[in-house]
Amino acid sequence: MSLHDKKSLTTISLPEAVKRPGVGTLSVAGKELEFERNEQLVRLFGSAAMFNHGGGKFNDIDLSNALAKIRELPCVVIQPKYSVNSIKHQMLQNIGISASDGALIPHIADFIPDLLLIEKATPEDQEILVNGSRLKVQKGDERLAIKVFDIKHTSESNPSYCAEIAMYSLMLANWLESQPSLSKRFYVSANAYLWTLKKQGESSIDALENKIKRTPAECVSALIDDSEVTYLRYYLGAVRQFFEDVSRVIKVADISPDSWKSLDWHVVSSCSNCDWLGDKRHLGKAQHGCIDNARDSYCITSASDSGHLSLIPGITRGAKKTLELNSIFDASSLSTSMGHPALQQHTMLKKEAGILPAKTKAILDNQLDKDSSAVIASLAGYSNLQLFVSINFDASAGLLTGMSVSGLVTEYISGVSPTRFSAVPFIVDEKTLEAEWVALEGLLSQIADNIERAEQVLGKKDIKGQIHIWESYSQIWWECNLNCVNACR
Ligand code: SF4
């Protein structure tokens, strides 16, 4: 969804959008891939494929008509179109947008996912509800599941594409609820897929096409096998965030034509597709003038001219916020901040506190430098002590909300079970740095205790340890190995 069409951009004071030269080619390649795959589906599903083909292309089809006409299962609906604009306010209320913010959301265009797979409900499935939550499908549910697929000309899935499918699915759940005759017969499944190029060369669909006979179940299984799961449970929340961001930006934009300049911005790798990045290295010569004539309107040139903190690789939005709260507003101030307490108030800053100012200076001066005190660590081949640390983080507050540690100690003797340390939780009671430190100190003490207990269990001092950190916000496993003699003391 774009807030402005191209025409309106020229009449308001936003700078001209400058697209990378390769974007058009990518878009054409994406359309060709969609066409090829749609044809493949038609061959595969035969009369169970619902589509409109004409003028050398596949055309959009009205979803309510298509669903009403379903006669055989499983079936696929190619390029279905549905709209939530007439139920916009109800839909926004359903997903938790306040009435005042919802009133700011502009017209919502039609949604046209590439493909829907319709099949019988299974008890392993989950239904997406209109508010974005999920509900387990009950045994004996006779409704039909609608699974959203999107075809992507990309080697693998990424969070933006998954969020796009989450948008399609959640909007579809709301649309379905507004169609009483259909909502009794269908539900939107939380199992949605991206049909990327990942399986190219070992495609199950290609293999199936070479078989003389194939069953509908084999076709469905091949389609799912060639696609990537989108794990919508992680992305449905992003839809609400998206609409909240839209209303936030509109509120700022409504103040004055130039107020977009006061929005917070931060150049990161995900900016690479943005039309206002202004990276001349990736633009045609014809577009260089746009950037040169309005350097403060494009993010890369503006960052470079103003010494914006996002110039420094690794500085995240959170790290920038912490620095700004401590009156370090630009790269120049950061380059002279060695020993500043702000560098101890954020995980990333803390990690790089010893080198960040020098690194920033080297970038600003364009001079290579080296860190003579740097130490390179290596991972232990095995560990006697394994500690599992779970950390929950409130991204909006920038604070931890709770932690826990459990573990095991073993000497890898056949027939001897590991000694297990049960989980000990540490809750951060208040949203303050002090309360966070109390909990963190408790966790570190517990880790030190566990190391001592491990030494006692094994009867030696030089055991090897490994800490697995599970951080639920980003769902990433981090591992750090340590030699327990030196660590956590
Ligand atoms: S910060 Fe990134 S995404 Fe935002 S306007 Fe600048 S380049 Fe675009």
Summarize the structure in short.
With 489 residues, the protein is α/β, with parallel strands linked by helices. The protein has 17 helices and 18 strands.
Sequence-ordered SSE layout with sheet pairings:
Elements: H1 6-11, H2 23-45, E1 49-50, E2 52-54, E3 57-59, E4 61-62, H3 63-68, E5 75-78, E6 80-81, H4 88-94, H5 99-102, E7 115-120, E8 126-128, E9 134-136, E10 144-151, H6 159-177, H7 180-183, E11 186-188, E12 193-195, H8 204-209, H9 216-226, E13 228-229, H10 232-255, H11 288-293, H12 299-306, H13 317-325, H14 331-335, H15 347-352, H16 356-365, E14 385-394, E15 399-409, E16 419-427, H17 433-458, E17 464-471, E18 476-483
Parallel strand pairs: 1-5, 4-6, 10-11, 10-12, 14-17
Antiparallel strand pairs: 2-3, 5-7, 7-10, 8-9, 12-13, 14-15, 15-16, 17-18
Helix pairs in contact: 6-10
Bound molecules: iron/sulfur cluster.
